[in-house]
Amino acid sequence: MAHDLCHCIQLRKASRRVSAHYDEALEPLGINVAQFSLLRNIGSLQPVSLTDLSHRVELDRSTLGRNTKVLARMGLVISVHGEDQREALLTIAPKGVDVLASAMPVWEIAQKSIEDRLGSDKLEQLHALLSAL
After folding, report:
1. Beta carbons within 10 angstroms of residue 58's beta carbon
2. Fewest CB within 10 angstroms: 31, 102, 104, 128, which?
3. Res. 16: pLDDT tops 70
4. Which of 82, 70, 81 minimizes the C-alpha distance to 36?
5. Number of other CB atoms surrounding residue 125 within 10 Å
């Protein structure tokens, strides 16, 4: 099978190009699209356990733990103990609220750029195709 015919490779290439588009837009804010996505998810679920967040974002708990520690070191999220002292709950720190507020319009511009490149028909097809996977 030719390298370019592998569905996985084609999807990974496309994913990297799209991620790079969003990363470039968000770079002035000091975050990437993965961090932006985590901040949005934490914000909508907070306070949220790593376990619940891992189910929501479809990442294994250990990877998610490493990623959220980076956000904590950046001062964007805070980890607090839940009722069960063994469980950490994540909330967005004040700095994270500010970064997220600044990032939303930047993300919307990047989003619109992708929409404009594909057009509504192809974008609808893309969503249908990806949902089928």
Report:
1. 7
2. 128
3. yes
4. 70
5. 12
Q: Cα 107 vs. chain centroid, distance in angstroms?
A: 11
pLDDT (mean) for 87-106: 95
Long-range contacts of 50-57 (CB under 8 A, 24+ apart): 50/88, 50/90, 51/87, 53/90
Tokens of 12: 């990974």
Best CA proximity match to 53, nearest among 39, 37, 42: 42
Confidence of residue 88 (pLDDT cuts 50, 70, 90): confident
User: Phi and psi (nearest 5°) for 48?
Assistant: -135, 140
Tell me the one-letter amino acid at 37. Answer: S
Condensed to tens digits (0 to 9), the pLDDT of residues 19-74 reads: 999 999 999 999 999 999 999 999 999 999 999 999 999 999 899 999 999 999 99
Helix (H, G, I), strand (E, B), or coil: what is residue 83?
coil
Q: Are 80 and 88 within 8 A, CB to CB?
A: yes
Statement: residue 5 has pLDDT above 90? no
| Helix, strand and coil in the chain, % to nearest 5 | 75, 10, 15
